[in-house]
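Annotated sample (chain length 176).
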Amino acid sequence: MTNQINNERYLVKLHQDILKIMDEVERICTKFHLCYYLMGGSCLGAIRHNGFIPWDDDLDIVMPRADFDRFIALLSDDNNKCEKDRVLGDGFFLRWISTEKSYNLPYAKVCLKGTKFQEINGLAAKSAGIFVDVFPLDSCGPYGKIIKLKSYFLSALNNCLFYKGVTRVTCITTWD
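Output written by the structure step:
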């Protein structure tokens, strides 16, 4: 019973922090007229649970490619600006190929400073703050069926390579 109570408290705190990040993303999207949508489990949770799926530990949004590129450009330029001119609030940071040399995911993460969310899963282990995932949404046009088939094949191959090195999967979250 104690583990269940601790897990519920952990998820309540985690969800609160994820919503802080989403509030910041929403502020930026509103200010710069950028479009985004909830996706996956985040969308399902909003509809079915009026919030998060109770056991979910992240929030996913998707942006049309043009808005995603503009969002990334706005936040990537923050590194070259003085503090008062930055777009992203002081308590947050962007993880993307423009801000991290070794970043290798096809989507960005807006993270909360002072937190640590570590996913331990073989060679793919990364450590960063609690986050909101931001995915680009691309149009497939007339090539949709071919792209879907190739995507399915590449996803299956990626899963095989990813899971080959996995000995156990654990998530650790800490707050400073």
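Annotation: The two ends are 26 Å apart (CA to CA).
Annotation: The helical segments are 2-31, 40-48, 65-76, 144-164.
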